[in-house]
Amino acid sequence: MAGLSMPSFAISSDEVKDFICSSCEEQAYADFYCKTCLKLYCGKCIQLHDKWFRKHSAYGRNDMKEWPVLKQVEEFLLKCEAHKDHKIEMLCDDHSQLCCTKCAFNNHR
């Protein structure tokens, strides 16, 4: 997923991130994602993209479920809360809880 860039802005202890246009020299925020090109575009650049690539499907911010998930976000979501060095790999049916192998062995036998 080269070409996808996100700046971060610290707001107290939280971090807010947004996507940046892949082709714009102005570092504008991206409003569209092309699944075929695997690139993000601002409102200005998407117009040129659409002229060149009529058969590509670009997804706007209202279709962000089609946008890529960054590797860091995916890793964060799959990390065990109790054991930061382990990934969530199982579901305990008895407790309806996602857990890593260490949690499963210690708490969910």
UniProtKB/TrEMBL annotation:
Output the InterPro entries linked to this UniProt entry.
Znf_B-box
Q: Which GO terms describe its molecular function?
A: zinc ion binding
Q: Does the record carry Ribonucleoprotein as a key word?
A: no
Q: Does the keyword Zinc apply?
A: yes
Q: Which domain of life is it from?
A: Eukaryota
For this protein, the record's PROSITE patterns field holds: ZF_BBOX
Q: What Gene3D superfamilies does the record tag this protein with?
A: Classic Zinc Finger
Tell me which residues make up the B box-type domain: 16-61, 75-109
Keywords (alphabetical) are:
Metal-binding, Zinc, Zinc-finger
Listed name of the protein: B box-type domain-containing protein
The source organism is Dreissena polymorpha
Q: What is the lineage of its organism?
A: Eukaryota, Metazoa, Spiralia, Lophotrochozoa, Mollusca
